[in-house]
Specification:
The protein is about 5% helix and about 55% strand. With about 180 residues, it is mainly beta.
């Protein structure tokens, strides 16, 4: 059994959402933590456990006014719900493909989520630390998590899509 901690300087936790249904806005969380625990002997991630959390106040869409609105009660309500969390229920790794299922909690609401993607492999860096890389993505409906703010333009267009893409490009460091 081994434990791995996320390396924040080599990881990105992003989301993408349609704006006016014609373009995509990308955002990220810059303050996050994650742990992977391998289930069996050695460093076999298959069947392991993953946990993740991010501070809502760290949301960054490169627009201060929009970030403030996202932190408000209209969206994430960062004051009342300062963190989002994910706890895996299964981690399946077959070849280079990973399927991670678990419970995502946003704004006090917990729903199942599936993330799929690629396992980049394991490598020892120049400092002798063993690293593992994953790139996974999924999709949620923000309404399912109580993120219900909506607006319509004068022309009748939707301002913000309900579908949100989740993209995690993460690197973990094996703990001694």
């Amino acid at each position: 059994m081994s434990t791995w901690k996320i390396d924040p300087s080599h990881s990105e936790v992003q989301f993408k959402i349609k704006h006016l249904m014609i373009s995509t806005v990308t955002g990220e969380f810059t303050d996050f933590d994650a742990t992977l625990v391998c289930a069996g002997e050695g460093d076999d991630f298959n069947g392991g456990q993953a946990s993740f959390s991010a501070k809502i106040a760290s949301i960054n869409t490169k627009n201060e006014q929009r970030d403030g609105h996202l932190k408000s009660a209209d969206f994430f309500d960062a004051e009342k719900y300062p963190e989002l969390t994910f706890q895996s229920t299964s981690l399946d790794l077959s070849g280079g493909e990973v399927v991670l299922k678990g419970d995502l909690t946003l704004k006090g609401v917990t729903r199942p989520v599936t993330l799929k993607g690629d396992f980049g492999g394991v490598m020892v860096d120049g400092y002798g630390q063993t690293k593992a890389g994953f790139e996974v993505e999924g999709k949620i409906n923000r309404q399912d998590f109580g993120l219900t703010w909506s607006a319509v333009t004068e022309a009748g267009g939707v301002v913000v899509s309900d579908d949100v893409k989740l993209l995690l490009n993460v690197q973990f460091t094996k703990q001694a």
